[in-house]
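Lay summary. Proteins are chains of building blocks that fold into shapes, and those shapes determine what they do. In this project we predict the shape from the chain. Here is one chain we studied, written as its sequence of building blocks.
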Amino acid sequence: MDNSFSASEILFFDSVEGQDAYQFHPLHKEFVEKYSHLWDKVVVYDAISV
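And here is the predicted shape, written in a compact code that computers can read:
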């Protein structure tokens, strides 16, 4: 169990294309560029419905 985090965010996407649109959107890229100095690492857990 990973308990090294102090914040989390859960996002749901209807498709891989929707997730890609989020990842590569100019506002998302601007946020990462502007605020990435505030975190040491980012951990992403992917899950799919079965």
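What the prediction tells us: The first helix runs from residue 16 to 23.
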